[in-house]
Design a protein that fits this description.
By secondary structure, the protein is α+β, with helices and mostly antiparallel strands. The chain is built from 4 helices and 12 strands. It is 34% helix and 20% strand. Helix 1 packs antiparallel against helix 2.
Length: 312
Amino acid sequence: MPFTTDVIAAQQVQERLKSLYSLVHEIEKKRNVCEQSIGALHRYGSNEKGQSIQKLKSLAKTAMVQTDAEREVIQKALQKVYEIRQIKNERRIQSRISAANKESIRKGTWMKMLQSSAQTLPLFVGKIGEKTPPLCGATPADRNYIAKIGDMVAALVNGETDEEIWILAEVVSYNSTTCKYEVDDILKEQNQKDRHTLSKRRLIPLPLMRANPEINPEALFPERTLVMALFPQTTCLYKALISKPPATHTDEYEVLFEDPAYPEGFSPPHYVAQRYVIPYKQLSRGGTSTKVRTTSQADSGSNSDSEEVYTR
């Protein structure tokens, strides 16, 4: 979806916003029709004696057809939202690599942007019994998946003192010959020295859609699952344990970060959005380990290393 100027991008966003406006109104109309059908089904089944089985089946079929029609319109609206996000993301990437653009983004602004990105991540709305697609909630990517330019990923890189840490990064390019990515640390994305060249095994793509716990609970990490999660107010991911999965599509995971600074070996509960909770990945072999800061140090902003070495 190439764009050459901000004007063209703005026009394309406006076109999609107009379509989205119409779709939202259409969703409301479809919803009213669905509610009427469901209400008729409920009244017939509850209040009348000697109900006809055929009549009940007919009312139920009508309600299902109308509900499916509403779902299709909702999916169209979500697609428009996704396209708008893609347009804005591509313009941001082009602005970033422009030689004339020297603007930097403060960490506090980035934290708000990350939160907004998680809250507005498209929600998967599928048919009854439909499986969630790859990168929806906890559903992993396909084996041969290649992250797109501009996608956010978790990347295993060397830290300031050569310890390996998982950070949030943005894909800059992918070399199909070497099977390696170039990624930028999102907090230092305009500084070329913070660009990393990494193999696929050192990257984990972030979810592209949220899963609805009330419809697709299987697409979420269950309680007691070992994961990696973004520690609040940082851009680093740490080993954590799921304490409580989301109950609704707006809820976040409740996680306990592994931290030897606490007697139980885990931090108090923290809340992390679906966008920033991914499968735990241990790359080390033969006792080699990945060393990270304790979450208590991350919380206080300390740059000192943890003495804890993860070997599991």
